[in-house]
Design goal:
Blueprint (H helix, E strand, L loop, with lengths): L8 E6 L7 H11 L3 E6 L1 H4 L4 H8 L26 E7 L1 H8 L6 H8 L4 E5 L3 H4 L2 H12 L3 E2 L3 E4 L5 E5 L3 H13 L8 E6 L4 E2 L5 E2 L6 H13 L2 E6 L11 E4 L3 H18 L5 E4 L6 E3 L20 E3 L3 H4 L6 E8 L5 H11 L4 E6 L10 E7 L4 E8 H20 L1
Parallel strand pairs: 1-2, 1-3, 3-4, 4-5, 8-11, 8-13, 11-12, 13-16, 16-17
Antiparallel strand pairs: 6-7, 9-10, 14-15, 17-18, 18-19
């Protein structure tokens, strides 16, 4: 999914770790998203990757010991003034300990000491170095002083050891940096539940009844909420690749499992959130489920030429939570151009939801696409969000959804 960071400026710090080459991929992700990227490198980092490489990737001069200039803004004081966030990736154990103790004996550490805005650090070191008591104390100190630590991975390290210390994946560092740039007070630390995908209703142990829902809208909604600072729980029947690993996700199958998970998540959200929780019901929950699923695999020789499956209606999840104290946004996909809008708006009264995202589909091929068209409906207002990528639409949906809390208190 393509995230836009236009008009954002990022300062990328690189220290002398073998994983310095991964900073090339990170810089490329930032540039692809539309951000302006400046780079500062320690002398040790230059032993692994040249400054010229990052100049080619970012189209900006790189700040090093030898390039620092007081006749321009390429110095450890001025370079940070134009940047919205400072991310150090990779950060060696040596650099982490020095930052925590206020050392400034190289160009990057001088830049850190002079930088007053949000900062993130992605450690990369041998397991024994990263888990040394001194390093752990330094990391805790930095977190207490509002520097975000992007946790390292446990895997086979370059030195041949297996354990904690590998640099986080560039995409995860990208998402954490984007969150630092995009988060808003309204969503920060707010508990939000997102449901997605089409539920699977078992006919027997190998067959099920389902629908064409891809779960992509839920994935992009969860991603947008994470980037805005929310505590997101994604309940989905579908795979959720290319979303931040920090998003809490639960894999579900049936409408019954979806309902139970929703109720449990709402209960936890009400207990832990100082702000009113939200739920975005983007899942395509089955209206009917087989009344008596068969055990094992049903053999066609025992059925004959026709298979009549008795179905029963599933419980309507949105309607069942209608009286609970959270803000509810439903999704309604229709193929009836004449009555689709009125059917979508009827959810507000019939199911006591606060807002509805209405999508008029042409046919089944509209499922699983990368873009969508949404009309955001409330009791007193209708907003055309237009056709756009699902991630772009997700941000628009969140913008409109913020107004629902105010309407709910009137």
């Amino acid at each position: 999914m393509q995230l836009k960071l236009n008009n954002k400026t990022i300062l990328l710090g690189i220290t002398g770790s073998i994983s310095a080459y991964k900073a090339c991929d990170l810089a490329r992700l930032f540039v692809k998203a539309g951000a302006c990227v400046h780079v500062v490198m320690t002398p040790s980092a230059e032993r692994f990757v040249s400054a010229l490489t990052f100049e080619a990737l970012t189209r900006n001069a790189v700040l090093t010991e030898s390039s620092e200039s007081w006749a321009s803004t390429l110095n450890h004081i001025d370079i940070g003034k134009a940047c919205d966030v400072f991310v150090i990736a990779p950060a060696t154990a040596n650099s982490i300990n020095k930052i925590a103790n206020g050392f400034a004996d190289n160009i990057l550490l001088q830049t850190v000491l002079a930088y007053p805005k949000p900062m993130l650090i992605a450690p990369s070191a041998n397991t024994n170095m990263i888990e040394d008591a001194t390093t752990l104390k330094a990391l805790n100190y930095l977190e207490e002083h509002h520097i975000e630590i992007i946790g390292s991975q446990s895997k086979l390290l370059a030195c041949g050891d297996v354990g904690n210390g590998a640099l986080a994946e560039p995409l995860e560092i990208f998402y954490a940096t984007a969150k630092a740039l995009l988060q808003e007070d309204f969503w920060t630390n707010r508990e939000v539940i997102v449901t997605g995908g089409g539920t699977r209703e078992k006919i027997d142990e190998v067959r099920y009844v389902s629908n064409f829902s891809s779960g992509k809208m839920a994935n992009t909604l969860a991603t947008a909420l994470y980037l805005k600072g929310a505590k997101v729980s994604l309940l989905s029947t579908m795979p959720h690749h290319e979303i931040p690993n920090q998003i809490s996700s639960i894999k579900l199958e049936s409408a019954y499992e979806m309902k139970e998970a929703v109720l449990q998540e709402i209960h936890q959200a009400e207990q832990h959130s100082p702000k009113t929780p939200f739920i975005f019901m983007a899942a395509a929950v089955a209206d009917f489920t087989p009344k008596s699923p068969n055990k094992g695999k049903t053999k066609k020789v025992t059925i004959g030429n026709e298979w009549n499956i008795e179905m029963k209606q599933t419980e309507d999840i949105l309607k069942s939570i209608g009286e609970l104290s959270l803000i509810k946004v439903g999704f309604k996909a229709e193929m009836d151009s004449a009555n689709g809008f009125s059917n979508a708006k009827s959810l507000i009264e019939n199911k006591n939801v606060d807002g509805v995202c209405y999508n008029l589909l042409a046919d089944s091929s509209a499922f699983g696409t990368l873009d969508n068209s949404i009309v955001f409906i409330t009791k007193d207002n209708t907003v055309e969000l237009g056709r756009a990528s699902k991630l772009e639409l997700s941000f628009k949906i969140l913008q409109e959804s913020q107004k629902l809390e105010h309407n709910n208190t009137i």
